[in-house]
Predict the structure of ATP-dependent Clp protease adapter protein ClpS.
Amino acid sequence: MPQHSKTQLDLQNSAEDNGQDGGLALDTAKPELKRPSMYAVVMLNDDYTPMEFVVEVLQGYFAKTPEQATRIMLAVHHEGSAVCAVYTRDIAETKAALVNQYARDCQHPLTCEIVPSED
Ligand code: TYC
């Protein structure tokens, strides 16, 4: 038994030990551990944007190596679309908006969109 008079913590601990909490809610809150929803940035094909421009965008905005960027660009070119990267929603929205604005500024029709991803 501590020498000092009982603190709130002493009372709480002994109440947890012996069930004498008088019906008070003494459980500590469960930590929030939910993972954030993830979104893929998907690049769309078009007939006009130069391949070199797409590769430059993939390197500059998505930190791809020249080899990775070329592979993704060719996947878009041949299949119509491909995932550039997966992020939380705010980051995915920002990346897509930045790429779309840059392409527009450069007068290319290149477009990205975001789609929910189960990653
Ligand atoms: N299809 C374009 C061309 O032939 C190249 C291209 C690739 C455009 C990927 C957009 O997201 C894209 N010049």
Residues 1-22 have pLDDT under 50 and may be disordered. The helical segments are 8-18, 51-62, 66-79, 89-105. Residues 43-47, 49-51, 54, 73, 76-77, 110 surround L-tyrosinamide (CB under 6 Å).
